[in-house]
C-alpha cells in the first residue's frame, strides 16, 4: 500500500499502481457494499469521528494509456470528508449519501430508471441535472462498479441506421435500413443488444443529428454499404458503447465525421479513447480503431476544380473557389482557444503527426466550419464527399 498524502482537510490524494477498472455488479453486491458503508458511517458518527469517502479522481491528471491505446482512469483518489470547512464540500458529501439511499431503494424494489427520472425524484436535493450526474459518477466510483449497476441508466440518446440488423433479447430484429431518416434510437442500456451485418463495409460515426438525418435521407448505405451512428453532439456513453460493439462485431473500418473546429476534434477523440470524466468504465466503450474521415483542412480550404460565379447580397457576381464559401466560415472564440489548448496536452496529438498538423492548421486559420457548410453550393456535396473520401481511403 502506498502512503496517503494529505493536501487539505477536505481532499487527500492517494497514489497506487496500475489503473482502475469498473465492472458490472449484480444488485446483491451493490446492496451489500452500500450496507457496509452505512454501518461504517454510523459507527464513525456515533463515536464522534469523521468518515471520509475515497473517490477516484476523474480528470486529465489521472489518466493513463493502456497497451491497446485506450484511455484508462488511474488509481489516484481524492477523499471527501464529512467535517469539511467548506459548505460546498459538505453538500457534496451529503449528495453522495442521498443517491446511495435512492439506489438502495431502487435495487431492493428490483427497478431501473433513467438519470433524468432519478434526478426528478431527488430534485429538492440537487440544483441541476449536471450536479446530479456528477454525484452519481462519484457514487459509482465509491462503490467501484459501473453506473448501470446502480440501476440508473442514461436516457435514450443517439441514433443508428444502415446495413445492419439490431438484435435485442427476444424482440423482433430491427432492419436498420428501414428505420427512416431519424434512425433507430439508441436506448439507455444495450446489455442485451447484438448486431448482424447486412453487408456493411464501413461504420460512419457522425457528430451531429442534422447531418445523420441528411445522410439517411440520401440512403447512403445504398451507395456505400455502411452503418451510420450519431451521438447528437458530445456522445453519451451508450452511443459510444454501440460504436465499440459494432466495431468488435462487424470487424470493418470505423470512421468519424465531425465539424472542422476544436470541439469536433474533441468529440472524435472521445469516441476513439473515452473521457476521464466518465470514470473507470470509460475504456470499455472506446474504439481506438476509429479513423478521422473529416472535416480536414483540405475539405474546407481545398479549391474547387473550377471557380463558379455566385451572386452577392448586393446583386454583384462574385467568385470564390474554396470548398466552403468564406461567408459560411465562423470565427474562433475564447471557448475554441480553451479547447485547443486542452487538445495540445493530449498525448495522441504529440505522437500522431497527421492529427497534430490538422490541429495546428485549424488554429492558424482562426476560423471553423460546420459539416453542413459544404452543402451551401450543392445539396449533395457532403454525401458525395463522404463516399469519395472513404473509397479513396482519405482517413487517418
- Note the overall shape: globular
Task: Specify the structural class.
Answer: alpha+beta
Summarize the biggest pleated sheet: 6 strands, mixed
Order of strands side by side in the largest beta sheet? 12-9-15-14-16-17
Question: Total helix count?
Answer: 13
For the termini, the CA-CA separation is: 42 Å
Radius of gyration from the CA trace? Answer: 24 Å
Enumerate the spans where pLDDT stays under 50 for 5 or more consecutive residues: 1-21, 304-320
Proportion of residues in extended strands: 15-25%
Number of strands: 21
Helix content: 25-40%
Averaging pLDDT over every residue, what do you get?
A: 81
Which features does this protein show?
single chain, 396 residues, alpha+beta, six-stranded mixed sheet, four-stranded antiparallel sheet, 13 helices, 37% helix, globular
